[in-house]
Amino acid sequence: MNKALVKKSIKDYFSLVFTTTKSYKVVTVVGLLFNWVLSVSILQAVVTEQHQYTAIIVRAALDGLWFFLMTHLFVRAYLKYKIVNGALSWQKIWRFLVFILVICFIAFAGSIGIGQIEMLKFTDINGFQFTNGEGVLQFDVSKLSFLSLMIFNSYIVFLGWAIVYLFWHQQINRRKVQKEMHHAQIQQLTNQLNPHFLFNAFNSIRALIYEDQDKAADTVTQLSELFRTHLHAHLKATSSMDDEWQVCSRYLTIEGIRLEERLQLGVTIDDDLLTQKIPTLTLLTLVENAIKHGISPNSEPGKIMISATKIDNKRWQLMVGNSINKPSQADGTNTGMKNVKQRLALMFGNKYDWYQTKTDSYFEVKMELPLA
User: Which residues contact 277 (CB under 8 A, 6 or more apart)?
Assistant: First the structure.
């Protein structure tokens, strides 16, 4: 066999062995503890020697460790290398069933070997006795029927472990696919916002061309810097609160040139929340909506309030509000709001709350989101 191929196979094997998820580690530790408690209880009931609690505890621990090594180093590695990532066929199934049988013999031989350790000899299968209330029934391991029963029991245990692992791995893959689908859906909805974003930005420049060419030129510069940031932002389905504010602040700078003193800002963003993730362009969409329907229609100064604050150790709140001095004549399709809510639902499921308040003089959107 090619040496390079052998090296690659060995490297792939060790990669499979040492690459584990946090949930797998937790389940393994819990399983080992449960197995240890169960083994101690059984050994105390069936060994012939009494008052050997230390040795019983050691034997139970060794048996549990041996079972873990068999499942982790061989059964799990075989499943991940041959079955999990490929199409299932009857040939693969039969090969796996034969493989499990081989593992059972190895595991059984190891168990016999553990029983030969000097301090553990009293736990050897030859010393097991079972009482039926009338006397003692002693089993001789040399009997073929007893040996077959032990191998069969081991086979069922290993096969059961493999089935549970495959089911668990399938559930993880399903959640991963769903997450990727949600990510793609969020990205698709995010991309739908770009034409609206461009339209507003160029409208700002158009309005300035006839009023102040210097300001128009400055606005183009600001727009260039904005799109430098925005180009990277819109390629991601989610962004940090810090990135969202960077894009939004540049947009507000552009709108501030056009609206001048008519645009007043009140911004409060907790530093601890700058790393929190939300769907990309969520904040910008809400601010655009505030300017379009709250600030632009009025000749009098208006105010936009933006805040990101902690509610408690599990949730935080993002709020965007704007004053209303005159009803907006702009068409309101609520497309932006629907888009934001759709993306929040895809990202957080039912773990977020949306509150929308409107009066004659004030409009506010408030979101309560889970802390990451």
Answer: 238, 239, 240, 241, 347, 372
